[in-house]
Task: inverse folding
């Protein structure tokens, strides 16, 4: 059962040994699986991922593989937040079970698709093409197709193996992996199988000591095998058997060794118990939740979920690092809505362990978690979170380093905090990221480079940026390499007296060491053999004899790993023999590519030749190609290729032959395809599907509806050439696919049926339709048949409310490219008849396509065929070339002529050649393909070449003569007298003596200088010794090498290069470059801690290019367009900091910094000080304005007026206070004065402002203050007239009598009336 991605159910199903992965979707199988459905999935995987497509090759797949698991150990469904074990299957929710049933339905559809694929498979084994291009597969093949092609092509050049009935040393055929991790719950199996004649015996070592299997009752060895089985059913601990094992397979001809197998028992320790306190964090701050899983073997898979088994949503802000920790670039209030638990899944035990959950407590300035703010354009400001520049959470600091092994994946990771969440970008210093291998993961926080090579070493840096700023972290990557093969030793099969060699070449970093062994023992301790010579990584055998048979081991190793290879030397004297069944029958489809196999053996190794129908000419070249293992490839099968092919193997002891009968079958084609139809409900619809196929093959026609098998019910009738649907209903609407298949190939065609639900009239329906593509033209007719022309007439289809603008006429011919349509001509949309010009001897078939502004119509049905009469070719093939592919041949190639230029049957080419200097007679050969190889040619000599077309009606015109050259060989000589002159610190001039032309042995392409930086004259400076090259095209004696590093020691070699490659190297020359100017200082930073100072910091230049003597800093103040005076500061080479005192808080500064050597100043870097904060501008403006106003006259006058007014107000207050002092009061009320009332001697009260007691008749306000209803004093006493009493609100208050007499009072009144102060006081 498999789950489609459309079901919305995420599933994980773990098996006893591995998880079943469906290769077509990459999904993991789920649910209970029956043996039948399992084998279907197995066959599906075999067909879809293990084999190339039918249109190239067909590799056999073993349906009897029993290594796949049948037992489900743990099966779980993800059902909204809960893991359901297999035991809880019935407790799954209705939704989950319904989705699983849907998945089961999809699985049955998949089975039907697999059956259709199997029906199209050829039934014979082997890696052989069986069918033509499927119409459904006429597209770019997927990437795995290319891998399958490569694997099958590699099998064509594999080593010849000795038949098992002949004596031979042992060969290891199967063994466990080097790092063998086993499940502690199962018995331990350490595999070791070998073949040989006689059958080999086996023994083992453990930790380099003999492992006595007989002494341990738990350990046994399988019969006729070296596989160890350690049984724990009767008890025992698997950990006791951990160690390093090695298998030895031995017979009388030698001993073969397995790899050293390191056995380890899988471990899944429990998570330590811990109580986790709530994590308190301020909103907007970064946070890291550490996982720290228990160390398992192998390492567990880490993922984060909540305690309720809900997955943690990850994005650019919240994500899991490669180390398993969960990183928050900034914490938001919504992060508190769930808890966070780290989960570890262990592979072997199929268990998931969950850590105690973290609980977050987020402190915030805005406690309201408004969900609308999550999509706010400025979410952080809206929540009151302060923005800040990025900083790295992982890795720490500004630089780090990482080592990776060649061929592995390089994973670089940068996780940054900041508000807003920073974006991460990746760069490589000095170059671009490898686009074909690099991919970004984890929201651009991780960079993965697959299949790392030495070119991927260097410095990478990640840049984290938001609107507040950016930072970067540099990661220095070093690529090392475990040993890898350059030339792996192969089995050596020799006849007595023959010579041979075993080569063991490997590379790595560090350079691996090579150790030879023979029959498992070091070669140094083996008995001496006069016929054997060891030369480093090569063993040379001379005049071998039967006694020289042995198994040799090559072990190459460095600190990162090892490689061990077995290669035997077998000395045999065997006449040729054929290894395949005799008189095989091979059936292939016309115009396909195929391969005929002829496995053979003999010693000495026989030569093999192919013949057809008993003819004497060897088949090789043109349409044929013979591989090293004897297989014959026919690039494009034609009818005349049918026949009996004979392969003959010959050596000095005799010959053997075998025959293969090849039958060519016509392809299966649907020549009348079903058409799109629109039908009313209740009507009858017929879908045509007429097929042309080879009559000797059984044809099967099947139908799909919406890409699923169609059930033929009572309302449907399936015939050989059509499908009829009676009483069409809405459920019949959809796409219908007709599949016509034989046992060798298939073809398909699709049409769409639309069902109208109502009986609306066509007129109303068309009025509602928008413009559409035109209908296809119909009723094509050919008239006026002439020798080189024909008239084509057609009836236009409906234009669907958009006028037809053009008609495109296409043709197809059935000889060279059947089934392929080519554009012939184009005509305006106003015509429906045209005269077409034709070429001789082409069997034409035409069709017409209508075009309007919406698009193109479907092609019309094809016309009847019309064959023109033949004629001799009127042209010859173009692009004739003669080039050598080897040093002793010349390959003549040309562009083959197409069907419209062949002009007759049996188009062939007359190829002529002769040496240009000798003017010898022409050699000629007739070729049917597009290439011919001339053998046994001298090295790089010119030839005159002619290629002339010919058919059964005659030859083409006389061809032009083309000059070609035979193959080149490597140059024999190197440039001499190489002289070097240093031009400057980065360039040198080279001069050399040119080589003699006869030593070039080809076309001199260029002189090439290989040079490398040996060391720097600066102590403790690491340099890259990578070889570089400079090319000097043509035959020249001098050149210039530039872009060198100053102040360095270099070495240089010269070679001459032709089309084959490099010649020998010249004598190594050494030279030293002088000092130069340094590169720019790195990481120049300008910081402004306050308005008074500016701090400058920098790092030393990356390339000093000499001895640094100091730094030069130039800076100038500027304010807008105004510039100040430039100031120059010089520093010592060790100083990397400087502080500038600002002259004023407004101006900004521009700084230019450069480093100096004795030669001069180097490249400068320029930075500017930050702009002043926004709030500083108004303050400065106010200060300037204040300084200017203080000197203005009007401002001085205003200040004086304000001071005078203040003085007058003080005088008024003083007068008011003095008049409210002591004066007599004559009480008119009946209430007598109490003894406590303060009286003066003259009978008056002491009434002053300091008295806080309320007067009689006053009221106290609500706030405790006194609210008086009358005035404290009455102006009646100071006015004109009056009797010393007043009534303001109708109530009697009292009568006030002055102390002095009336005359004195009147005198005072007159003086107050004329006093300006008194007037002001009255206003107060």
Result:
């Amino acid at each position: 059962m498999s789950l489609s991605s459309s079901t919305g159910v995420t599933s994980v199903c773990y098996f006893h040994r591995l998880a079943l992965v469906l290769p077509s979707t990459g999904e993991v199988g789920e649910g209970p699986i029956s043996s039948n459905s399992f084998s279907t999935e197995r066959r599906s995987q075999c067909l879809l991922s293990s084999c190339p497509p039918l249109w190239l090759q067909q590799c056999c797949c073993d349906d009897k593989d029993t290594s796949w698991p049948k037992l489900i150990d743990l099966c779980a469904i993800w059902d909204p937040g809960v893991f359901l074990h297999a035991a809880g299957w019935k407790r799954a929710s209705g939704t989950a079970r319904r989705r699983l049933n849907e998945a089961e339905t999809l699985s049955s559809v998949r089975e039907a698709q697999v059956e259709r694929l199997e029906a199209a498979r050829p039934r014979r084994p082997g890696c052989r093409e069986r069918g033509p291009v499927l119409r459904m597969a006429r597209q770019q093949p997927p990437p795995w197709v290319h891998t399958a092609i490569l694997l099958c092509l590699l099998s064509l050049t594999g080593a010849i193996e000795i038949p098992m009935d002949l004596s031979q040393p042992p060969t290891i055929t199967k063994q466990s992996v080097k790092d063998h991790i086993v499940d502690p719950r199962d018995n331990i199996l350490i595999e070791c199988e070998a073949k040989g004649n006689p059958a080999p015996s086996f023994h083992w070592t453990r930790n380099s000591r003999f492992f006595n299997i007989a002494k341990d009752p738990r350990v046994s060895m399988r019969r006729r095998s070296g596989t160890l089985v350690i049984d724990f059913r009767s008890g025992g601990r698997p950990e006791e058997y951990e160690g390093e094992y090695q298998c030895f397979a031995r017979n009388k001809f030698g001993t073969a060794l397995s790899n050293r197998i390191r056995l380890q028992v899988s471990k899944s320790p429990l998570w330590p118990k811990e109580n986790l306190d709530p994590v308190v964090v301020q909103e907007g701050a970064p946070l890291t939740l550490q996982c720290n899983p228990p160390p398992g073997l192998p390492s567990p898979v880490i993922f984060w979920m909540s305690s309720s088994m809900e997955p943690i949503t990850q994005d650019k802000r919240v994500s899991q690092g490669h180390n398993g920790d969960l990183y928050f670039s900034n914490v938001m209030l919504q992060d508190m809505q769930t808890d966070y638990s780290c989960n570890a899944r262990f592979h072997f035990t199929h268990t998931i362990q969950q850590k105690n959950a973290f609980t977050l407590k987020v402190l915030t300035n805005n406690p309201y978690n408004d969900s609308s703010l999550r999509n706010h354009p400025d979410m952080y400001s809206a929540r009151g979170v302060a923005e800040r520049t990025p900083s790295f959470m992982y890795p720490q600091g500004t630089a780090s380093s990482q080592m990776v092994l060649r061929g592995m994946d390089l994973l670089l990771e940068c996780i940054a905090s900041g508000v807003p969440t920073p974006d991460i970008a990746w760069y490589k210093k000095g170059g671009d990221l490898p686009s074909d291998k690099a991919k970004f993961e984890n929201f651009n926080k991780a960079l993965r480079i697959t299949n790392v090579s030495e070119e991927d070493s260097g410095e990478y840096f990640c840049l984290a940026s938001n609107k507040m700023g950016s930072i970067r972290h540099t990661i220095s990557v070093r690529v090392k390499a475990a040993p890898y093969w350059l030339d792996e030793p192969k089995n050596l099969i020799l006849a007595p007296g023959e010579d041979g060699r075993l080569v063991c070449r490997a590379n790595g970093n560090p350079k691996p060491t090579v150790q030879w062994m023979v029959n498992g023992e070091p070669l140094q301790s083996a008995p001496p053999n006069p016929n054997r010579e060891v030369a480093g990584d090569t063993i040379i055998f001379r005049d071998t004899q039967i006694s020289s048979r042995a198994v040799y081991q090559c072990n190459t190793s460095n600190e990162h790993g090892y490689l061990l290879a077995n290669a035997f030397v077998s000395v045999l004297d065997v006449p040729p023999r054929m290894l395949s069944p005799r008189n095989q029958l091979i059936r292939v489809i016309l115009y396909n590519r195929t391969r005929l196999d002829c496995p053979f053996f003999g010693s000495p190794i026989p030569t093999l030749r192919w013949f057809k129908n008993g003819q004497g000419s060897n088949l090789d070249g043109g349409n044929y190609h013979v591989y090293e293992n004897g297989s014959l490839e026919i690039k494009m099968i034609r009818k005349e290729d049918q026949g009996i092919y004979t392969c003959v193997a010959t050596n000095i002891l005799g010959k053997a032959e075998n025959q293969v009968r090849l039958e060519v079958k016509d392809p299966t084609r649907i020549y009348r395809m079903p058409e799109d139809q629109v039908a009313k409900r209740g009507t009858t619809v017929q879908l045509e599907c007429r097929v042309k196929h080879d009559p000797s093959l059984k044809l099967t026609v099947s139908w799909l509806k919406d890409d699923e098998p169609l059930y033929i019910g009572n309302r449907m009738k399936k015939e050989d050439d059509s499908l009829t649907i009676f009483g069409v209903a809405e459920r019949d609407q959809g796409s219908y696919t007709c599949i016509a298949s034989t046992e060798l190939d298939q073809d398909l065609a699709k049409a769409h049926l639309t069902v109208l639900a109502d009986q609306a009239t066509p007129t109303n329906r068309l009025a509602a339709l928008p413009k559409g593509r035109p209908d296809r033209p119909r009723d094509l007719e050919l008239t006026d048949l002439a020798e080189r022309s024909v008239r084509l007439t057609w009836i236009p289809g409906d234009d669907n409310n958009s006028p037809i603008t053009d008609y495109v006429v296409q043709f197809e011919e059935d000889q060279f490219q059947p089934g392929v349509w080519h554009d012939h001509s184009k005509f305006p949309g106003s015509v429906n008849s045209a005269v077409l010009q034709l070429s001789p001897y082409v069997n034409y078939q035409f069709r017409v396509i209508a075009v309007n502004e919406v698009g193109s119509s479907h092609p019309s049905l094809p016309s009847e065929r019309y064959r023109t009469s033949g004629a001799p070719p009127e042209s010859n093939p173009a692009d004739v070339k003669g080039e050598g592919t080897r040093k002793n041949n010349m390959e003549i190639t040309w562009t083959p002529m197409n069907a419209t230029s062949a002009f007759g049957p049996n188009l062939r080419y007359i190829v002529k050649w002769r040496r240009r200097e000798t003017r010898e007679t022409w050699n000629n050969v007739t070729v049917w393909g597009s290439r011919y190889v001339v053998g046994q040619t001298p090295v790089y000599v010119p030839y005159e070449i002619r290629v002339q077309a010919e058919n059964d009606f005659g030859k083409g015109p006389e061809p032009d003569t083309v000059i070609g050259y035979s193959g080149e060989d490597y140059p024999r000589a190197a440039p001499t007298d190489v002289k070097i002159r240093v031009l400057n610190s980065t360039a040198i001039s080279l001069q050399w003596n040119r080589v003699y032309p006869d030593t070039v042995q080809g076309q001199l392409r260029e002189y090439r200088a290989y040079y490398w930086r040996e060391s720097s004259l600066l102590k403790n400076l690491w340099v890259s010794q990578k070889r570089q090259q400079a090319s000097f095209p043509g035959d020249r004696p001098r050149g210039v090498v530039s872009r060198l590093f100053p102040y360095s020691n270099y070495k240089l070699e010269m070679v001459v290069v032709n089309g084959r490659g490099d010649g020998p190297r010249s004598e190594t020359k050494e030279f030293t470059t002088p000092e130069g100017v340094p590169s720019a200082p790195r990481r120049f930073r300008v910081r402004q801690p306050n308005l008074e100072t500016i701090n400058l910091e920098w790092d030393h230049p990356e390339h000093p290019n000499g001895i640094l003597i100091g730094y030069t800093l130039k800076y100038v103040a500027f304010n807008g367009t105004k510039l100040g005076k430039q100031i120059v500061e010089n520093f010592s080479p060790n100083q990397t900091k400087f502080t500038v005192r600002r002259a004023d808080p407004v101006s900004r500064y521009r700084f230019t910094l450069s480093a100096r050597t004795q030669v001069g100043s180097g490249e400068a870097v320029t930075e500017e000080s930050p702009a002043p904060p926004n709030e500083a501008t108004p303050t400065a403006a106010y200060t300037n304005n204040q300084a200017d106003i203080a000197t203005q006259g009007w401002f001085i006058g205003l200040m004086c007026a304000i001071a005078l007014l203040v003085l007058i107000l003080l005088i008024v207050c003083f007068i008011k206070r003095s008049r409210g002092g002591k004066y007599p009061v004559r009480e008119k009320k009946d209430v007598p004065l109490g003894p406590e009332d303060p009286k003066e001697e003259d009978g008056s009260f002491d009434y002053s402002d300091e008295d806080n007691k309320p007067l009689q008749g006053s009221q106290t306000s609500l706030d405790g203050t006194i609210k008086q209803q009358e005035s404290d004093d009455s102006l009646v006493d100071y006015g004109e007239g009056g009797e010393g009493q007043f009534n303001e609100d109708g109530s009697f208050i009292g009568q006030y009598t002055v102390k002095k007499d009336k005359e004195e009072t009147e005198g005072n009144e007159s003086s107050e009336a004329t006093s300006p102060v008194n007037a002001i006081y009255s206003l107060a």
